[in-house]
Design brief:
67 residues, alpha+beta, two-stranded antiparallel sheet, 1 helix, extended
Length: 67
């Protein structure tokens, strides 16, 4: 995922999926991964710079951490 207000070049799709620009207001029209909105907070924030998964104390579940 990239954030920009200017782009020069060509987006190139791969075996992993299609690359295309979409309007942010249309995100709800797409099937997104479950943690996408948390990840987007990092892009929007002047405070956060990292998105990480950490195991909980029991080691059975993953927790999303923003730093």
């Amino acid at each position: 995922m990239f954030k920009t207000d200017k782009f020069k070049g060509t987006l190139t799709s791969s075996d992993e999926g299609e690359m295309k620009w979409i309007d942010r207001n249309s995100l709800s029209d797409y099937t997104l991964v479950s943690d996408f909105m948390d990840l987007l907070k990092v892009f929007d924030s002047d405070f956060y710079s990292e998105f990480m998964y950490e195991r909980n104390k029991s080691g059975e579940d993953w927790l999303i951490r923003l730093y």
